[in-house]
Amino acid sequence: MIRPLAALLFVSALSPLISAEKPNIIVIMADDLGYGDLGCYGATAVKTPNIDKLAAEGQRFTSGYCSASTCTPTRFSLLTGTYAFRQKGTGVAPPNGPALIKPGTVTIASLLKSAGYATAVIGKWHLGLGDPKPDWNGELKPGPLEIGFDHCHLLPTTNDRVPQVYVHDHRVLNLDPKDPLWVGDKAPDENHPTGITHRDTLRMNWTHGHNNTIHNGIGRIGFYTGGHAARFRDEDLGDEWVKRSNTWIEAHKDRPFFLFFASHDIHVPRMPHERFQGKTPLGFRGDCIVEFDWCVGEIMKTLDRLKLTENTLIVLCSDNGPVLDDGYVDGAVEKLGSHEPAGPFSGGKYSVLEGGTRTPFITRWPGRIKPGVSDEVVCTVDLAASFAALGGAKMPDDACLDSLNVLPVLLGEPGAKGRDHLLQQDNNGVNLGLRMGEWKLVRSKPQGRSKAVVTKKERVESGGLHRLYHLPDDPAELKDVSARNPEQLKEMIAKMDSIVAAGRSR
Ligand code: NG6
Ligand code: CA
Fold first, then answer.
1. Would the CATH topology of 21-410 be identical to that of 422-502?
2. Which parts of 330-476 are beta strand (E)?
3. How far away, in angstroms, is 161 Cα from ligand 1 center?
4. By the 8 A CB rule, do 500 and 433 touch?
5. Gap between the Cα atoms of 258 and 154, Å rounded
6. pTM of the model
7. Read out DSSP for 47-114?
8. Candidates 3.40.390.10, 3.60.20.10, 3.40.720.10, 3.30.1370.10; correct CATH number of 21-410?
């Protein structure tokens, strides 16, 4: 696309590296979406025509990963380009958690901003706000705006964690000062209705946790009061992300932009809009996949309408593998049938088996990418370095410590090589996985251990600490072949240790 000369000159003044070829970039991240959950990855019980179209017009990766098997660490490493286990406290963030990425940190957003991009994040954040905790009735900073985003419109943590309000730039949207918002981890008084005291009134029962404050007839994690005018309905979240994104894209159509579209779908409580309810035989879990696909389609339509499709790179990915019962009774288990959320892999959310982090991964840029399927290894942690290369941003040597520039692979260039190794982690990096070519090493910590480093003594003593799998014969990681491949095992243990100990892998 040729941008008007005046706009070009204006942007050139901001960054000497800008060029007319710079594409817009949209990262669409689903929540808890598994490898097998989309039509283009083999699902038949749920139809995903928009995402399938994206895949047919771009590169579909069979070894595309997120870096962790829960949300917060994957998002931390997507934005910072650094494995989350390197920073303590990056496991699933609580409702009153502080901003985990400190102002001044180089991020995917600050890199692109320095290259002249307009930047925004719309949707789920879950990386904490404020320091040392969020000031829900005041300014919510630091947050995305302090680490490179020009604009944010957020679900602050998760849809199952309180409070159910939107954060718009630095403030809770529609907050009435006469009805202040209070958030805590203990009930504010003994009469506060909870998922335990009022269980029979709930419209979606809980199986574990999720029995604190009730909102929209659903028990949540954590307690809150007030802020009634600011509260959303779960059913409307998808529409909200689309509406806000379309407005922002349209307002920035004349300059390169970077949008992080962070859907809450298909995280619990799964409560799709009424018009998607009952659309699949899989219950609300499947219906939320349909809602997510609809959202993707709406963004695609907006790009078409604004004639931006040709010069926009879309990366579609997930933040961790699938889970069926994540705390609510929503039919996901009972209605599963023959659907395989993790495709051919074992494990899922919370696991370092392939199902935990090998997830859908699609790139489309009609002006540049030839359609195809790629078996090369790429990861969400690589997007920072790859986008820096694409946008012409200079990356300091001491930033994005694990982000590799895999841009040629993302663009489907013939002969381009992806990663030759990738570390995978669970929520806190207690358990690790290492993919190297056809091999996979799994390190499960002895119970009660929480450090990422294992001593030699522990390794010898703990016998079953490491398992080795040969993925082409055994994608489901069922047969430990470490005893038959001592050299391979030794090499991979040494590699895993060195990636952890070196503090960086770039
Ligand atoms: C767990 C929650 C789970 C989900 C997860 C975070 C319980 C019992 N389980 O602690 O429901 O919220 O955290 O999910 O509370 S994530 O996709 O955001 O990482
Ligand atoms: Ca998730």
1. no
2. 362-364, 372-379, 422-425, 432-436, 439-443, 466-470
3. 9
4. no
5. 16
6. 0.94
7. --HHHHHHHHTSEEEEEEE-SBSSHHHHHHHHHHSS-GGGSTT-SS--TTPPPSS-TT---HHHHHHH
8. 3.40.720.10
The model's pLDDT over 321-353, given as tens digits with 9 standing for 90+, comes to 999 999 999 999 999 999 999 999 999 999 999
Distance (Å, rounded) from C-alpha 453 to C-alpha 398? 22
Q: What are the tokens at 340?
A: 């395989």
Domain boundaries, the chain: 21-410, 422-502
Q: Where are the alpha helices (DSSP H) in 306-410?
A: 354-357, 383-391, 407-410
Phi-psi region at 114: left, alpha or beta (left = phi > 0; alpha = psi -120 to 50):
alpha
Please tell me the predicted confidence (pLDDT) of residue 9: 41
Per the CB < 8 A criterion, the answer to whether 350 and 326 are in contact is: no
Segments of the chain scoring below 70 in pLDDT: 1-20, 446-464
Phi, psi of 269 (to 5 degrees): -70, 125
Please tell me the predicted confidence (pLDDT) of residue 213. Answer: 98
Q: Which amino acids bring their CB within 6 angstroms of ligand 1?
A: 31-32, 70-71, 92, 126, 158, 160, 208-210, 221, 267-268, 320, 326-327
422-502: CATH number: 3.30.1120.10
Predicted confidence at residue 24, as pLDDT, reads: 98
Instruction: Report how far ligand 1's centroid is from the alpha carbon of 321 (Å).
Output: 13
How far from each other are the two terminal CA atoms of the chain, in whole angstroms?
33
